[in-house]
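## retry 2 of 3
previous attempt timed out at serialization; input unchanged, resubmitting
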Amino acid sequence: MFNLKKYIPIGLAVIIILLVLASYFFIFPKYQDYAVKKKELDIKDVDITAKEKYLPKLEIVAERLSEYANQISIVESALPFEPSIAALSNYFQKVMSQNGLILEGLDVSQLFIKSASEESSGNINNMLFSATAVGSYDSFKSLLLDIYLNARVIGVESFSLSSADDLLNYSINLKTQSYNMLINTIEE
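## retry succeeded, writing output
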């Protein structure tokens, strides 16, 4: 006759071994995936909580900045994000004609060329250009004053004068600035 009691310990051992193998190959990897996903979820939860706390601060700052909209627009026009050659040319034609000078030429070929020293200057581009004009000395002084009082950051690097009949010829080397196209993000 078949003695079942004799095979019970072997059956229990086989069942225990199968349970250990099943948990090692099936349950333990699922637990590891669960633990990783839980850590990712906890990190996302902390990130969301931090952003929820930061959002009211940003709203307060935005309200404060809206009070200074006029001043901010002046700064943005002084240091534009995207410098426009057409706007620069129009400005110089206008300011020279208002001061009684004739704009003969505007050389913008050096406008977007960076020197090695400017590569590390941060978020500001220095842009060089030159203008040639004809007119009286009083008109030239008035032009320099207008450039100095202009909201846009334009500096006179150098100028030269030459005489032709009753009028003077002026060659002016100027420098303006703009923000770099790639702006670093501001972090808290």
